[in-house]
Amino acid sequence: MSNQRKHELLNSTLDNISESAPVELSVYHPDAENVDAQIHKYSRAQIHLFLRVRFCLLDFNLVESQITDGTGDGGLDAYHIDEEKKVIYLIQSKYKTTPDGYLNSDVDWREFFKMELDRIVRGEAGSLSGNQYSGKIQAFQQKIRNITDIARWNYILIYLGNVPSAITKENLLSISGGVCQDAEVLHGNDLYNHVLIPYLKRDFYNKEDFSFEIYINQERTANRIRYSVDLADGESAEVQLCFVPTIEIARMMSQYRNSILQYNPRCYVGIRNTGVNADIKDSVSNTDHNEFSLLNNGITIICNEINYNDNTAQRGRASITVSNPQIVNGGQTAFTLAHLYENNADRSIFDNKEVLTKFIIIIGNRDDMIEKISDATNNQNPIKPRDKASNDPEMIKLQAELFDQFGVLLERKQGEFFDSIKENLIDKKSVLDSVLLMRLLLVHRGSIARARSASEGILFKDYSFDGIEVGEIHKLIQIYNKVSNLEQQGERDGNRRYQVDIWGNGLKYGQLAITYAIYQLSISNPDLDACLSQVQSRWSDFETTIANHEHNHNYFSDGFDYANYYKGSTIDRDLSEYMSNFSV
User: Fold this and answer.
1) Which pLDDT score, from 0 to 100, does residue 134 have?
2) How many helices (H) and strands (E) does the chain have?
3) What confidence tens digit (pLDDT) does each residue in 261-316 have?
4) Where are the domains of the chain?
5) Of 10, 25, 135, 442, which residue is the least packed, with the fewest Cβ within 10 Å?
6) Can you state the angle between helices 35-55 and 2-19, rounded to 10 degrees?
7) Which fold has domain 2-201?
């Protein structure tokens, strides 16, 4: 079932990419009954997905110009020329229609001998069999010929598919003609975890270097300060402070969004939900001078490397290039600037306005120091407990395991799947909210009242994943979904909506209690539907039983108050005792 879920997510994504293709590209709009044509469509769309995620190529036509798949392709499906790294990527893509096949079926070894990469890059006009290479291959060859320093370049083979384990990287390089200096294989699970998930979360913009243009005075002294900081345990940090033009921060945030917020407790949509900061907006939009640089608290960016150069042939300008920037503080400022950037055709509002930006390179253990910096500096908008927990390594690990093992999408950061939901790649109901996860952890421990009534602050205060395997968490998720789906959401009549004749007040107030009861039965019976049926047959009796307990007399006031009972002080003991005497 988990493999099925992941494959459905992949197919919906590939379908979405295919639908964006021009009508005249019929390969992306095949007859639904033509299985071979559907496979061809998905195989090509998979290349689009890979190039989007790996190289941030979002323009459909640009990617399509790099796809060579077709008659006379010499076994080369696509390529990408990376001018910054001086690398030419040669890409082969294979797609399997079934979930099991996508993960486990190896590519036929004979397919590898169809690759004539050596002949293509050496400029041959056609294959060994005498067939001329296609126009797209010839165009690729011309691009190689136009590279004046080709001797400094490398070739890397990218294989999207399940290469048999018996074929080593060295074998693959040799079979493909010996022209590549390296090879990377992405098996089905690699594509799910390292291509599909980043795409769904929109944190795949992995541009390593980002350049900022800053202002300097006529004496060529930049508005920046450099200093070193000694940290504990022999570690250190290099810090540079400078005033960066607001438009530079705006365009970076607008383009890279979640990708530069990986260490921030909030994602792009999470920040957006707090609203555009009116003071920031006003100080940019309604002033002609640089008060913004004084009024704003600034932005803190963690990065791997900083390079400065004032030899730009532009008077009064210098350039700072930052490697792998990550905003840990000032996300609200960056978001508001991006909002103005995206919603104002007049970019002159950014003229002569700068924001104080602190660039930090941490030498040593980054994670602990990043968390300290984030906690100390994120005070413009209070950080919700769920936001603070979002970068907990255990939470990050659980998110990865739930998807890898069960195809479950855990929303670790609020709103991180927003774009994919908006584009109908994901059903909102299929995303597990982290608050619900915390409630289910309490259900696992038998703390039913607390699970139902605890505030977000309490839920995330002392949570722990100790003593519970990811498989048990998944089982709780499955059970809760089965229970919540019993509620007839569209039904206006309360009795019918909550099936009062069967469940009493359970579906209205006690869904977490029902989840606990089914979970207890599932310990000895893996058939969850059978466990649900057993609990359903006894729930009315449970409510009758507890209503007659002397210790629950305080809940009587014009009838039994089930609304408060299911979050009261006696539900945990009552249900535990009832389940201990539960017999099929």
Assistant:
1) 95
2) 29, 14
3) 877 767 765 555 555 567 788 888 888 788 888 888 899 998 888 888 877 777 77
4) 2-201, 209-383, 393-580
5) 135
6) 80
7) Restriction Endonuclease (3.40.91)
Q: What is the DSSP string of 42-96?
A: HHHHHHHHHHHHHH----HHHHHTTB--STT-TT--EEEEETTTTEEEEEEE---
Structure tokens at 46: 């998979």
Are 333 and 391 in contact by the 8 Å Cβ rule? The answer is no
The H-assigned helical ranges of 382-447 are: 385-389, 393-406, 418-422, 434-444
Measuring CA to CA, how many Å separate 561 from each of 336, 543, 567? 47, 11, 11
Q: Is 503 exposed, middle or buried (0-12, 13-18, 19+ CB in 10 A)?
A: buried
The pLDDT score that the predictor gives to residue 376 is 65
Helix (H) or strand (E) holding 535: helix 528-547
Structure tokens at 276: 């555009």
Task: Give the residue among 249, 266, 267 at the shortest CA–CA distance from 258.
Answer: 267
* 110 touches 97 (CB < 8 A): no
Which pair of structure tokens corresponds to residue 497?
């909506």
Q: Which two tokens stand for residue 35?
A: 């299985």
Distance CA 322, CA 208 (A): 8
